[in-house]
Amino acid sequence: MIQVTAELNNYRQSPRKVRVVADTVRGKKVAEALTILSFVPKRAALPLEKLVASALANAKALSIPIENLRVKSLTVDQGPTLYRRRPRSRGMANPIRKRTSRVRVVLAAK
Question: What are phi and psi of 70, to 5 degrees?
Answer without folding.
Answer: -125, 160
